[in-house]
Structure formats: structure tokens, C-alpha cells
Specification:
The chain is α/β, with parallel strands linked by helices. The chain is built from 15 helices and 21 strands. The protein has a seven-stranded mixed β-sheet, with helices on both faces. The chain has a four-stranded antiparallel β-sheet with strand order 4-3-5-6. It has a four-stranded antiparallel β-sheet with strand order 11-10-15-14. The longest helix has 17 residues, at 382-398. It is globular, with a radius of gyration of 24 Å. The two termini are 45 Å apart.
């Protein structure tokens, strides 16, 4: 039925209806709480129990009742189920005249078609002279679609990726066949620590062929092909049978022995992720098609390393203290966002959360939770909480595009991409502007403390 749900305060609660789905068309809103599904009282249910009844054959109906803030009685809905296609490109837009932004969130069966359609739509709206392809947070997916997306931007015959097996005769190269969809248009690909698998095939291929400048943080490094062998007793052996290599010969796969430690010691960013400045010393180097320095050792190292907007040491300490001691604070922020929208029916997308609003948020927190929260730490973490609250309100009120636009001023990696694209008129000039015509990757600081 197209609803993102989670358990909150004893009720399965709508986080957001997916645009264009039965739930959205029916008028279900973020914050609505299921009190009844198919005639059964739903208080105390978890997500799985609700999903079991909400899902069903396409074309059939499911009846629900929801509790909504400010409404005295439960609201009944009858939803007609349909097959939901989750897009890998949720939207595409021009951030400034001529410079387009296309986020690819996952690599699935229709990804190349969606990217192509997004480019067609953008060009119909106006001339496209620069492109940001955002692969940050993209966990990857299908090898063939990673190849197909890369194929959209590479010259015919260009090698995209090579799989190398354990034996010498188990090597296979995949090449572009359709020709560059945007010849001569400068392009920046954004990656981060959570870009993995097929998304690394895309960024690696475009970087190795000097088709795109890669910016952000070094990617995850998931480039192995694993085969499952079933053993007696129901056990399964997972064996790595091949690895992926970029056109220049870099292995995408890298060891992750320090991943757990990195999660604990990394620097907290404004959007809640952890980041660790890359160490490039001692890593093997190769060259791109045009002679630029590329780093091996696993993952895709950006041409321009741009640290995300990180919190100060004091802010990080406060945020970690608040969220570890009171995990329910996240629930309180969500609930306040719902009530804030209800209290401000004429709210505009450029709204600002004031210090008074934050004080009201603190006062609205359940007494049992507030007893675990130090007011001093709450105020020290106010920048993080304000940003989180504004995002939640924008998402619930207007959807993904407005929520994204609210994030742009804080997105140092995206701003860096827009800056170099705004001063470039070709892929070649893009590398010159970024200082990467032949040199080593540069690092741009976020101003973290």
C-alpha cells in the first residue's frame, strides 16, 4: 500500500507515505497511528505484524483505522493494494540553471532506465551543461545494472569492469556499447563510506576513463563475487570465487577488519553518519586513462576528498550522551514534528526552528525520558537537534524534494561539486578547475573541530 512504517509509542506509525501509492492517494499522513487493521485492534503490534496484514494480492483491499493528532476519533481508510515499484532515482532536478542533480539510491533492475529517463526529463526542462550523479549511501545491487548505468556515460568499447576468478580462465571484461549519453558535459560523481558494490563499479569506471570527477569520501570497498555451497546438516559455505576490478586494474574489494572500531571512533557528521578521514599514505597508485593518479587498495578514492559537515567535539559528546541515554529522544523529535505541522497549517518550506521551538520540544518530552536527558547537553546538541527536526518536518509536510533542498546549504560535498561544475564547460576543464589534471587527490576540510 506504499507506507513507510515503524513502531512508536505502542503503535505502528506512518513515517511517510510513498508518493503516488495507495496510501498517499488515500490521504494517510506521517504520524498517523494504526489502531485497527482488517478489523483487528493493532495497539501493541510491531512492524511485522502490521505488514503481514497490509500486504496482499494486487487489486485486493485492506481496511484500516488510524489515530491522528488533533482528530477525536479514528479515521477509516480502505486501501486497494497494488504492486509498489520503489524507484532507485526518487527525483531529479536542476539545483542551479544548467547543473542537474540525479541521486541513484540503489542499483536495481530498472536503474539504467530510470537514470536515462531522468536525463531526458531534465533536458526537456532546459539545457544541461553539468551533472552531479549522487551515489552516496548507495549500497549497490546488480552487477549488470552497474554496468548499464556506466554505459550511459562512456564511449563505445570502453571497459567498465573486469571480474577475475581464482583461475586464469575465469576473467571476464564488460565494455560499454551504447555511447556517451552526455558527450562533452562535465560530470561529478559523489561517493561516501556507504557507497558499495555496483555503485563502486560506476564511480570507478567513470573515474578511470576521466569521464567524471569523483568527490566525497572513499567508498566502502565491496567488490567480491561469492558463491554459496550447501553442506550437510543445513550448513552453508560462502566462498569468494571472484573479485571486481576497475578498468585501470584497481581491486574494488578491500578488507574491513577495522569497520567496527571505525564506527565507534569516527567523527559524527551533522546528518548523523560517522566519518573517518582517509589515510592515503602507503596505498598503491595507478593511473587513469589521462594519466591522473588513482589510489588502489580497495574502494574508490575520490579525486577530491571532501569531509562532510562534522560536529564540534563538544557537540559530538553531547549528541552521543543524549542518544545513548535516551534512545526514545528520536521518537520525541518525530512526535514534535507531527504536532508542529498540525499547529502551523500555513507553514512555508523556508521555515526556521527557533530557540523557543527547541525549548518547547524539550518540554514536550515524556517525563520518563526527560529524566534521562541533561538539559545542558540538550542545548549543546541544539544544532544537531534543530537540523534533525527541520528535516523531519520538511519530509513529513512536503516530501523528499523539499527535505533535500533543506539539506543543500549544509552539504559541503554537494556544494563542492556545484562549485567546480559552475566553473567548467567540459570534462577536461573540470579536472583543471579541481586541480586534478594530473596530480594526486586533494582534501577539502569541513572545518571540523
Amino acid at each position: 500500500v506504499g507506507l513507510e512504517i515503524t513502531e512508536r509509542n505502542g503503535y505502528v506509525t506512518v513515517v511517510a507515505p510513498i508518493p503516488g501509492t495507495p496510501g498517499a492517494r488515500a490521504g494517510i499522513r506521517p504520524g498517523d497511528q494504526f489502531v485497527e487493521i482488517e478489523g483487528r485492534a493493532a495497539q501493541g503490534w510491531d512492524d511485522d505484524q502490521a505488514v503481514e496484514l497490509l500486504r496482499g494480492e494486487s487489486g485486493t483491499e485492506v481496511s484500516v483505522k488510524v489515530k491522528r493528532l488533533g482528530v477525536d476519533h479514528p479515521i477509516p481508510f480502505t486501501l486497494k493494494r497494488e504492486r509498489i515499484h520503489l524507484k532507485s532515482v526518487p527525483f531529479a532536478l536542476y539545483l542551479v540553471p544548467g547543473i542537474a542533480y540525479v541521486p541513484l539510491q540503489v542499483v536495481r533492475e530498472t536503474s539504467s532506465e530510470e537514470v536515462r529517463a531522468a536525463l531526458d526529463s531534465l533536458e526537456d526542462a532546459g539545457p544541461l551543461r553539468g551533472l552531479v550523479l549522487d551515489l552516496r549511501g548507495n549500497p549497490g545491487g546488480l552487477l549488470e545494472q552497474g554496468i548499464a548505468v556506466s554505459d550511459l556515460f562512456l564511449a563505445e568499447g570502453a571497459v567498465i569492469v573486469e571480474t577475475r576468478g581464482r583461475a586464469s580462465d575465469q576473467t571476464e571484461a564488460f565494455s560499454a556499447s551504447s555511447g556517451d549519453r552526455l558527450p562533452g558535459v562535465p560530470m561529478v560523481v559523489l561517493v561516501d563510506e556507504y557507497s558499495a558494490s555496483a555503485s563502486e563499479i560506476i564511480s570507478g569506471a567513470l573515474q578511470d576513463h576521466d569521464r567524471a570527477l569523483v568527490a566525497g569520501m572513499p567508498s566502502y570497498g565491496k567488490g567480491s563475487v561469492q558463491t554459496l555451497f550447501r553442506l550437510s546438516g543445513g550448513n552453508v559455505l560462502r566462498l569468494t570465487t571472484a573479485r571486481w576490478f576497475t578498468p585501470a586494474g584497481r581491486s574494488i574489494d578491500k578488507p574491513h577488519d577495522d569497520q567496527i572500531a571505525a564506527r565507534e571512533t569516527g567523527t559524527l557528521t551533522l546528518n548523523g553518519a560517522l566519518t573517518t578521514p582517509p589515510v592515503l599514505e602507503g596505498r598503491p597508485t595507478l593511473q587513469s586513462k589521462g594519466g591522473r593518479t588513482l589510489y588502489g587498495g580497495g574502494g574508490i578514492t575520490p579525486d577530491v576528498v571532501v569531509l562532510a559537515d562534522t560536529l564540534t567535539t563538544e557537540e559530538q559528546t553531547a549528541v552521543r550522551s543524549l542518544y545513548r541515554k535516551a534512545g526514545a529522544l528520536e521518537v520525541s523529535i518525530f512526535n514534535f514534528a507531527v504536532s508542529f505541522i498540525q499547529a502551523h497549517p500555513s507553514l512555508q518550506p523556508d521555515f526556521q526552528i527557533t530557540d523557543l521551538d527547541l525549548s518547547r520540544l524539550y518540554d514536550s518530552i515524556d517525563d520518563n525520558i526527560r529524566s534521562e536527558i541533561d538539559n545542558i547537553n540538550f542545548m549543546k546538541a541544539s544544532r544537531y537537534i534543530r537540523y534533525d527536526l527541520e528535516r523531519k518536518i520538511a519530509l513529513q509536510k512536503w516530501g523528499q524534494v523539499t527535505e533535500f533542498r533543506r539539506r543543500v546549504p549544509y552539504d559541503l560535498q554537494l556544494k563542492s561539486a556545484l562549485d567546480v561544475l559552475g566553473r567548467s564547460d567540459s570534462p577536461e576543464s573540470l579536472f583543471r578547475v579541481a586541480g586534478r589534471a594530473s596530480g594526486e587527490p586533494s582534501v577539502e576540510s569541513s572545518g571540523a573541530h
